Amino acid sequence: MMEKSEIISYWIKSSDKDYQAMIHLFEKGHYTWSLFVGHLVIEKLLKAVYAKKIADNPPFIHDLYRLGFIQAGRKMPYSS
Fold it and tell me: Would residue 12 count as lying in a domain?
């Protein structure tokens, strides 16, 4: 089992690698893919914060809006 610090580090390092890929894609003119990878960068950083503040294992979701609300400790204004 991974320690909390290892989990946080995993999400941050993974986000850093994706960030570099995002920049490369953007520089090559692949704007749609760059945007997609940028979403992954933000998602992984939110999951690092979740691991630090709330629990070791972030939820298996990709919705940045929901991840943000979870971070803030607020209820979603809607349910999907």
Answer: yes
